[in-house]
Design brief:
CATH superfamily of the largest domain: P-loop containing nucleotide triphosphate hydrolases
Number of helices: 9
Strand content: 25-35%
Largest sheet: 6 strands, mixed
Helix content: 25-40%
CATH topology of the largest domain: Rossmann fold
Distance between the termini: 25 Å
CATH class of the largest domain: Alpha Beta
CATH architecture of the largest domain: 3-Layer(aba) Sandwich
Bound molecules: adenosine-5'-diphosphate, magnesium ion
Structural class: alpha+beta
Radius of gyration: 24 Å
């Protein structure tokens, strides 16, 4: 799915949203964005780029310097967090260890003064929706990571939000659990049909989860698109480098990106005449990765076609590498199909 067209329903729309903490560059610098109803949106970017600030402004946990936030066309910019129709799911689930799953889920209803019978009924309904009904009396310590995540999800859903906000919910988990949990998050999001906005600094996590990725840098949006579009057509040098898997080349016509698995290696003895679709390189690193071999390469700066960007990498399938292995310090020619290269804004 691409960026929303103006006729599609947006769950969240932000318009020229800005957060200025002190002096200097704003943490969030007049960003505008529409997030489709029922979609999984990931805000992605390096640490400090303004992801959490954006999410906290949407949640109502941070005031807005200027701009607007609309939820299903309702302006919520100045509403208190509890009146917005959003809910937040925190890192590592943040469950109360001494309360049962049921009481964790019912907690916010208790704070609102809702009676025990009624709040337990609502909480049990939700736990049943995430297949946790039979374990409602267990405490978090008696549940697996996946089960705890489902309790955290039920707890966030008890206020009947239209949009669920998640700030690095998986970052503190070990790698194995993280991959399991992200598959579960994705499954529940589709099953519940809710809009999720998930902040992460991991491009791998965003690619695995998102319908729409929003790549941020220095408080600005660099690119919005499906994981496929962003990976195949990074809009800028920053996005190409941040997503990884791309080489950035300086050519006579400007900066170009080429995927590391879309470059071919040729031994120097079989090199083609120099053109804008090839360059010279010296092998500096050979890493066996199982299904492929990752070669690190350095441009010696001798190509007349002026591909001057120094560091490159190329993925060669294991079978191809076995046919013709490349050695450290070997000079090779890299080439690519004209359509494999696309222009990058710098
Ligand atoms: P991210 O979540 O992408 O890592 P943040 O949104 O937390 O980034 O921060 C964006 C910028 O705003 C950073 O430069 C950060 O130091 C600054 N910042 C965040 N919160 C505050 C705050 N409460 N007061 C002052 N500066 C802040
Ligand atoms: Mg953050």
């Amino acid at each position: 799915m691409n960026a929303l067209s103006s006729s599609q329903a947006a769950a969240i729309e932000v318009v020229a949203l800005t957060k200025q903490y002190g002096v200097g560059q704003p943490a969030v610098d007049s960003i505008s964005l529409r997030i489709g109803s029922g979609s999984y949106c990931c805000l992605l970017g390096p640490s400090g780029c303004g992801k959490s600030t954006t999410l906290r402004m949407i949640a109502g946990h941070e005031s807005v310097t200027s701009g607007d936030i609309l939820l299903e066309s309702r302006n919520i910019t100045n509403l208190p967090a509890a009146a917005r129709g959003t809910a937040m799911m925190f890192q590592s689930f943040a469950l109360f260890p001494h309360l049962s799953a049921l009481d964790n889920v019912a907690f916010s209803l208790k704070m609102k003064g809702i009676g025990k019978t009624e709040r337990h009924k609502s909480a049990l309904d939700l736990l049943e929706r995430v297949a946790m009904g039979p374990l409602a009396q267990r405490k978090p310590g008696e549940l697996s990571g996946g089960q705890q995540q489902r309790v955290a999800l039920a707890r966030a859903l008890i206020t009947q939000p239209r949009v669920l906000l998640l700030d690095e919910p998986l970052s503190a988990l070990d790698p194995f659990l993280r991959i399991q949990m992200r598959a579960e998050l994705r499954r529940w999001q589709k099953q519940l049909g809710l809009t999720f906005i998930h902040v992460t600094h991991s491009q791998e996590e965003a690619m695995a989860l998102a319908d729409t990725m929003v790549v941020m840098n220095h408080g600005l949006i660099e690119q919005v698109g499906s994981p496929h579009d962003v990976y195949n057509r990074p809009a800028s040098e920053f996005v190409a480098r941040f997503m990884g898997g791309h080489n950035v080349l300086d050519t006579p016509t400007g900066k170009m990106g080429v995927r590391t698995d879309h470059m071919q290696l040729t031994p120097a003895s079989q090199a083609q005449p120099e053109s804008v679709h090839n360059t010279w390189a010296v092998v500096t690193d050979v890493e066996y990765q199982g299904t492929y071999v990752l070669l690190g390469l350095q441009n010696p700066g001798t190509a007349k076609t002026a591909h001057t960007t120094a560091e490159m990498s190329v993925m060669v399938s294991e079978a191809k590498f076995a046919e013709r292995p490349y050695a450290l310090a070997e000079t090779v020619q890299l080439s690519w199909a004209p359509e494999a290269a696309h222009a990058l804004a710098s």
